[in-house]
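hiii, so i know i said id send this last week but things got crazy w the move. better late than never?? heres the sequnce for the chain we talked about at the cafe, plus the structure i predicted for it. fair warning i was half asleep when i ran it
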Amino acid sequence: MELQQIMDARSPGHTPGVPRLPNIKALTSIRFFAALHVALYHMVRPFSLWGPLAPAMSVGYTGVSFFFLLSGFILTYSHAREYESGKGNPLKFWIARFARIYPVYLVSMIVAGYLSRSQFHNKIHILAYLADLLMLQSWSIRMVNFFNVPAWSLSVEAFFYLVFPFIFLRLRPSTAKRAIFTLAVMWLLALAVPLLCLKLYPAAAWTENANSTLAAANQIFRVRRLPILALPQFLAGISLGWLYLHFRPRPKTASFLAAAGIVCLAVTLMLANHLPFVVLHNGLLLPFFSMIILGLAESNWLSRLLSIPVLVLLGEASFSLYLVHFIYNDWVKSTFMASDTILGAVWKLAVVIPISVLLHLCVERPCRRVILGWWSRRHPAALTVPAS
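okay and structure toks below
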């Protein structure tokens, strides 16, 4: 996969004079399967309905760790050349991130607010809704779970975006061993507080719905939601991005990593009932996710399979799927008494996936173009190639 040596000016957010790396289509497609895992986790209860697959399907929340890791990887992959050449602009980066996520996020929050309008007599609900609109809800366990529950991770991502321009160059490695070491350190940091919770609050830390004291449950919930405690997962993604850019694995090595990562991930998910809930939630699977990402970043039979247009489109719409599936599921349950069975999940997904694609095509893409175009017109100097 070689750098494109000509400027690609299709995006108003592109910086002229900085070669663009090609999109890694397989990593776009894989997002759909991660979002689908999260959606099925919310749509099917009890998990025993899955039979032998119950352990794996009961830990759909692990898809969020994958998104955090992938986010760090893709942002590093996309912006490394720009910042290494001295043309990086934090404000431009933040505007581009806002244009990418906020339009669909705002639509989801408007819908969630409308469906929950009867709750606005309570002051905490008003404050929670304002926190949601400002993407600050994950900093307070009192406000994080109102309205659209999965949106908590977007609040965490907003924090990641805020700090990214200031930290990702500092994680640039000088050797492959240093890159792997940094990745390992970030993994251990991600697990440090969950392991401490396992010692202090064993019942609440082992099982998602354990019979434990309110204080213990609140502490575990706080660990699962605080952005600062999720930061090592994002930093691991940055380290992985640098590892790929500067010390790319050979094609055969990448194919092995993808296969080994998938097998290890599948085995671990099937054994999830024997692993602590809070550790799984906060990054235990990062090594396997990293192997899969590195493997799919190179051309092999699996990455080519995942690069077919329909899967790429579903991957692009996965952000919308992640944001709207919970709202839709709650609405059909309360309005039509829809069941949480596997069959029920199938027909719900048959509706919500096309809705997600429409949101991507009719809201996300157009709004992104408008916002980036507006910013480019107001800041033409930021898009001007400096004289050498």
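btw Residues 30-379 form one domain. thought thatd interest u
miss u guys!!
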